[in-house]
């Protein structure tokens, strides 16, 4: 799986509806309503890089109420869950 973090600016009057529409897209695993410079953050997970075009450019960017996006493709993932799993298997760093 390849992950991308998509920062989304949305029509302020429609943030909940935009978030729900994005959350229903195939490839989108989570959508967060956030404070700061953007309105929403979506986590997108796909099998191949080419799939990002289908999910982000062809569908997410076309959701009514999306004003703009910035996409950040992850090249490595770190999480507490991954570290705890490694230690439970006997790895010690």
UniProtKB/TrEMBL annotation:
PANTHER family xrefs: LEUCINE-RESPONSIVE REGULATORY PROTEIN (PTHR30154), TRANSCRIPTIONAL REGULATOR AZLB (PTHR30154:SF34)
A Pfam family that the UniProt record links to this protein: AsnC_trans_reg
Provenance organism: Arsenicicoccus bolidensis
Signal peptide: none
Domain Transcription regulator AsnC/Lrp ligand binding: 6-77
InterPro entries in UniProt: Dimeric_a/b-barrel, Tscrpt_reg_AsnC/Lrp_C
Protein name, per record: Lrp/AsnC ligand binding domain-containing protein
